[in-house]
Automatic annotation (TrEMBL):
Transmembrane segments: none annotated. PROSITE patterns: ALDOKETO_REDUCTASE_1, ALDOKETO_REDUCTASE_2. The record marks 83 as: Lowers pKa of active site Tyr. It holds the Pfam family Aldo_ket_red. It comes from Amycolatopsis jiangsuensis. It comes from the Bacteria. This is Diketogulonate reductase-like aldo/keto reductase.
Length: 266
């Protein structure tokens, strides 16, 4: 199969992480491993995904590295995210080096603290993350599954805000105050499990999908994009990967977005 035309790839909007463009639709790789992960990532890159989301904890970085080595997509066109689990606090540099070796890259684009270490903001880890960024081993650093309070505590201790906070996010848990608080701090919200966390039979979503002759999954992705929220979405199936990515071309009306927003208030 030939790669998607560049115009379709360019249709995916980006967030600006201090000069580093991050595609707002990323390819999620959990829980795939081994050859399945390699083949799925190769297919996703062929179909136009440019962001690949992995983590030390997924134990698939080597399989993804095999795909990055085989794809014809140049490294500079790719955005690779990985995450350090909190049980590696104190072993940050070793963990990053293991990720880089497994992925076969000399830097990752985004490195996240996978969740708050022991429920704390992870200040000592952040220092190591910032050093890795200064040394060019990672382009941007962020967190995952953090509350606003923890982000503020991290900021108070370090003077820095994370570039990204990745957390579970979908229409059913839409919380505008949370999204606005992140935006006010310059933190990009990245939604993981946007589909898995959604009632895909919800009549509001179903009727909007029918009106556009699209799948409910595409509507959920498009709704996130409308709000400027990055989505990390996983499918092991090529046809679904294509549909999820094609949501970049789906424009919802203000009324439709407002109706979906209301699902979070239910
Ligand atoms: N930071 C964190 O703590 C964290 C936590 C969880 C996940 N993540 C990241 O976020 C990514 C996405 O989250 P997720 O995998 O939990 O959930 P998701 O992407 O919301 O949903 C994945 C599920 O939806 C199915 N699916 C995808 N597209 C579909 C479509 N168009 N039609 C029908 N079914 C479809 C997939 O099945 P098939 O594969 O069979 O198509 C899979 O069962 C993960 O892969 C991971 O990279 C991060």
């Amino acid at each position: 199969m030939t790669a998607r035309p560049q115009s379709e790839v360019d249709r995916v909007p980006v967030a600006d992480l201090g000069g580093l463009p991050m595609p707002l639709i990323g390819y999620g790789t959990h829980p795939m491993r081994g050859p399945q992960a390699t083949e799925a990532v190769l297919a996703a890159l062929e179909e136009g995904y440019r962001l690949v989301d992995t983590a030390t904890r997924y134990r698939n970085e080597e399989a993804i590295g095999a795909a990055l080595a085989q794809t014809g997509v140049p490294r500079e066109d790719l955005f690779v995210t990985t995450k350090m689990p909190p049980d590696r606090v104190g072993l940050e540099r070793r963990t990053l080096e293991e990720s880089l070796t497994a992925l076969g890259v000399d830097h990752v684009d985004l490195w996240l603290i996978h969740w708050p270490p022991g429920g704390y903001p992870g200040v000592t880890s952040w220092g190591e993350f910032a050093r890795a960024r200064e040394e060019g081993l990672v382009r941007a650093i962020g967190v995952s599954n953090y509350s606003i309070e923890l982000i503020d505590a991290l900021h108070e201790a370090t003077g820095q805000y994370p570039a990204v906070n990745q957390r579970q996010w979908g229409p059913g848990e839409y919380a505008p105050a949370f999204a606005e608080a992140l935006a006010a701090r310059g933190v990009v919200l990245s939604a993981h499990s946007p589909l898995r966390s959604t009632d895909l039979n919800d009549p509001v979503l179903v009727s909007i999908a029918r009106a556009h002759d699209r799948s409910v999954q595409e509507v959920v992705v498009a709704w996130n994009l409308h709000h400027g929220v990055a989505v990390t979405v996983k499918s092991a199936h090529r046809d679904r990967m294509v549909r999820n990515l094609s949501a970049a071309g789906l424009t919802l009306s203000e009324d439709e977005v407002a109706a979906i927003d209301q699902l979070g208030a239910a």
